[in-house]
Amino acid sequence: MPRPRTAAGGRPRLGGAETGFLMAVASMTSIQLGLALAVPLFGQLGAVGTAGLRLGWGGLLMLVLIRPRLRGFTGRDLLACAVLGAATAGMMLFFMLAVAHLPLGTASALEFLGPLAVALCGRGAGRKVWTVPAALGVLLLTEPWHGGLDAIGLLCALAAAGCWALYILLTQRVGDRVTGLSGLAVSMPVAGLLGTLIAAPSLAGRVSWQAAATMLLLAAVSPVLPLALEFLALRRLTTAAFGTLMSLEPAIALLIGLLVLGQVPGLSAAAGVVCVVAAGVGATRTGGRTGESDTGLEPESAPAAAQAGPTAAVAVQERSPAETG
């Protein structure tokens, strides 16, 4: 009878692949649901105000729940966390602006080009072929031959993609130097502070107690809950399996946009999302190290990948020897 997989210290890992699968799907659903539920507040708070208030609450919740000990940080660690917080703020602010101009599924697929670009630039020649469906997906999403896509929304989505790519690279650096979720507990308050400062002019005289309470709940739905679920999922899934699952997020965004916001995608947009998802799945599943099997992350590497998402998980796999199983 096979023995259960164990974590560091010989302790058995809780749950299995099925549990990790459910956690990963729940994480992606929570992220997109939180975004969709925030859209109705655009009329009162504006896109920047909504993003800034959610960032502020999210940073406060992370600080209270994790309570990092700053004595364990060096000056360089704190600087890296601060820059990571700035990238996080940019990612969320630009994405909210994109959602104000584009359907949720389209904005999410365009933003996913950031981590996809990091994956495609990683080692492994097998990944390069997935540039073709990714480029086709962008063409189908933007339809340049019609000229109908909102230019501001497109630019904001691409800016969010760039911030997401930077977020992944910085999270790997922070995760290498800071154990657990302490780095996230420092970077998220920085993101919250920046987001609140940027959003403050647009929030003046527009925030009600009801809106503030709603944004507190939405901050718990995303980013706090998804990050915790990703962290737990990475203890149960292989890096390739986790990355493949997270590549499905644009499709989940398309479904959430349809069910919650009533955004019915056109045939071209739906096909574009499928192409981007296929490129993400392919880039994550290929390019692995030959002669090594891809399984779970070591406990020391999991926090960094949990914070950064699918592409960070792949990058950690490339840096560290894979386990057997």
Report the β-strand fraction as a percent range: under 5%
Question: So what's the overall shape?
Answer: globular
Strand segment tally: 0
* Average predicted local confidence, pLDDT: 77
Helix content: over 70%
The number of helical segments is 14
Largest sheet: none
Whole-angstrom Rg? 19 Å
End-to-end distance: 15 Å
Structural class: mainly alpha
- Pick out the low-confidence regions: 1-14, 287-325
Element order: H for helix, E for strand: HHHHHHHHHHHHHH
Describe what you observe in this structure:
This protein is mainly alpha-helical. Helices cover 71% and strands 0% of the residues. The chain is built from 14 helices and no strands. It has helices spanning 17-38, 42-66, 75-101, 104-111, 113-120, 131-142, 151-177, 182-203, 209-233, 239-246, 249-260, 267-285, 302-308, 310-319. Helix 13 (302-308) runs antiparallel to helix 14. The radius of gyration is 19 Å and the shape is globular. It starts with 16 loop residues before the first helix and ends in a 6-residue tail after the last helix. Mean pLDDT is 77; it is low at 1-14 and 287-325.
List keywords for this structure.
single chain, 325 residues, mainly alpha
At a glance:
The protein has helices spanning 17-38, 42-66, 75-101, 104-111, 113-120, 131-142, 151-177, 182-203, 209-233, 239-246, 249-260, 267-285, 302-308, 310-319.
